[in-house]
Amino acid sequence: MKKFGWYFFGIVLAVIVGLVLGWWATRQAGTNRTVNSQLILTALHDRGFLVTQTYMFNEPVTIDDSEQSFWQNLLWGQVVKAHGVIEVNMGIDLAEINEDDVNVTSEGVIVNIPEAQLFNSRLVGAINVENKQGILKRIFDNDDGYNQALAELTKQAEEAAKDPELVSRANERAVEEVERLIGYVVTDREVEVAVEE
Fold first, then answer.
1. pTM here?
2. Domain interval for residue 122
3. What is the DSSP letter of 56?
4. Pair 105, 12 in one domain
5. Which of 3, 33, 179, 190 has the most crowded Cβ, counting Cβ within 10 A?
């Protein structure tokens, strides 16, 4: 029984010494990591497109394909009225940041990011469409107006998202998010992020 006790003690001691040495080695490896622009670029490029702001627009649209005269309108005219909710996502493409945009010094890190841009837009829910068509248009070319309405609602929402105040909000959030992301990589220096104009 005494031999078993010594073997058990030796195994436990070896495991404890191995854990302590492993912890010490990884701690030393972590402190010797050199922060450079390539390390920061890799961390940012791995994220792809960073969506910083999402806007919802619910504005009605009217598409008037009326003809010139009363009779032409009665036969071939079309007026589509629609409304629906369009979601527009804005942010920055982190892949556009290059080595010239990252400046690493002993005091801190300065990163220039591109201005926020449109990422995508999509319909949320249904579109309510009211379609008034001329008699012959309804018989021979019965278009419910859904595709036209969706295209016009999307176009209108994307234009509204380009408002300078909304772009400014998306830029502010981009700066905050990029600072947070770089903060995971650079822990010992000040991080400053600026939007290129």
1. 0.69
2. 34-195
3. E
4. no
5. 179
Regarding whether 74 and 21 lie in a shared domain, the answer is no
DSSP line for 95-160: GG--GGGEEE-SSEEEEEEPPPEEEEEEEEEEEEEEEEE-HHHHHHS---SHHHHHHHHHHHHHHH
The answer to whether residues 136 and 182 belong to one domain is yes
Bridge partners (DSSP) listed for residue 131: 80
CA-CA distance, 139 to 158, in Å (whole number)? 34
Comparing CA positions, the residue from 128, 133, 148 lying closest to residue 78 is: 133
**CA-based nearest residue to 60, from 128, 133, 132, 151:** 128
Tokens 């309405």 -> residue = 149
Q: Can you give the pLDDT of all 197 residues of the chain as single tens digits?
A: 566 666 676 777 677 877 777 777 776 555 545 777 788 888 888 888 989 999 999 888 876 666 665 555 556 566 778 888 999 999 999 889 888 888 888 888 889 999 999 999 998 988 887 776 655 555 556 666 677 888 889 999 999 999 999 999 999 999 999 998 888 888 878 888 888 87
